[in-house]
Specification:
191 residues; mainly beta; Immunoglobulin-like; 5-stranded antiparallel beta sheet; 1 helix; 11 strands
């Protein structure tokens, strides 16, 4: 996967010189290589939506750490959860992950909603994304509608900063979902 052609501009300015923009593109290229590896491993589907590249992947429900009372506490996925939905969002101009977004999804099957929620940011050692565990009625084709609001964070640069101004919608139709749960880390053999 390579960095797409630029729109918005990525030209030199009083905030970014050409070599600095090259570093940003190199960071984006690394993120896109991780996204390509995710596509090969888990079947991620990627679409262009406005100023973003949006990727969708469905995996097995999984546990995660959460900060509680100043300590990280492991939480298994809820018992009823049998799927994990991930949405990765990259800048279409340079390929870098875009943090701080308000990403909502509606997942449906046969016209009935299965999930309608805002996705929190999930730190991942391989590919940062927005996501959640959820319950699906079974294996099959699902439709996923993703909505991304314009972010409220400030943007540097009078030349390169004019991006993410409009909300975007992207539809992933007839995506094959398969229910499952990842084993607890405590259940895995230790090396």
């Amino acid at each position: 996967m390579s960095t797409p052609s630029t729109t918005p501009p990525t030209g030199a300015s009083n905030e970014a010189e050409p070599d600095q923009l090259g570093l940003a593109r190199a960071e984006g290229d690394a993120y896109l290589r991780s996204l390509e590896a995710m596509r090969e491993e888990s079947g991620a589907v990627v679409k262009r939506a406005g100023d973003f590249l949006v990727a969708l992947v469905q995996e097995d429900a999984e546990g995660m750490y959460e900060l509680r009372g100043g300590r990280l506490v492991w939480h298994e996925a809820p018992e009823e959860a049998n799927g994990h939905l991930e949405i990765a969002v990259a800048d279409a101009a340079d390929g870098r992950f875009v943090p701080g977004l308000d990403v909502t999804v509606t997942v449906s099957r046969g016209g009935a909603d299965v999930l309608d929620t805002r996705l929190p940011f999930l730190w991942h050692p391989f590919l940062h994304h927005y996501g959640t565990n959820f319950t699906m009625p079974g294996a099959g084709a699902y439709d996923v509608q993703v909505h991304i609001d314009p972010p409220t964070f400030m943007r540097h640069d009078p030349v390169n900063g004019r991006r993410y101004e409009q909300p975007v919608e992207v539809a992933f139709l007839n995506v094959a979902f398969e229910p499952g749960r990842k084993p607890s880390p405590d259940a895995r053999p230790r090396a």
